[in-house]
Amino acid sequence: MMNNILLFANILLLVLGQTIWKIGVSKVSLNTAQDALNLMISPWIWAGGLLYVLATGIWLYLLSKLPLSYLYPMQSVAYVFGLIISLILFKEFIPLTRWIGVAVIMIGVYLVAK
Fold first, then answer.
1. CB 17: neighbour CB atoms within 10 A?
2. Number of folded domains in the chain?
3. pLDDT for the residue 98
4. Contact (Cβ atoms closer than 8 angstroms) between residue 34 and residue 82
5. Most buried among 33, 35, 67, 88, by the most CB within 10 A?
6. CA dihedral sign, ordered 19, 20, 25, 28
């Protein structure tokens, strides 16, 4: 049970890290070297990186406890969370084909979890 909670935490940290990076890069135009430097010192980018470091620590622990053939497919749940965050937070349009793709992924996650 604890490993599944840690797996969920890992997935959540990865998605939150990506979300924070998306926010960070949206605040910089990235047209000049100065823009790239500003991006590298952005608190948004550092915060996202910190979440990734935490997620990686959890991932390494999980790799020592569970088979990769189980863990890796289960991380596909991140696609679902990413899609939902894209819709709610960034107001992105999600076409029907993408929703269907995520449904197929969820069916796969269900089968792997069985």
1. 19
2. 1
3. 95
4. no
5. 35
6. positive
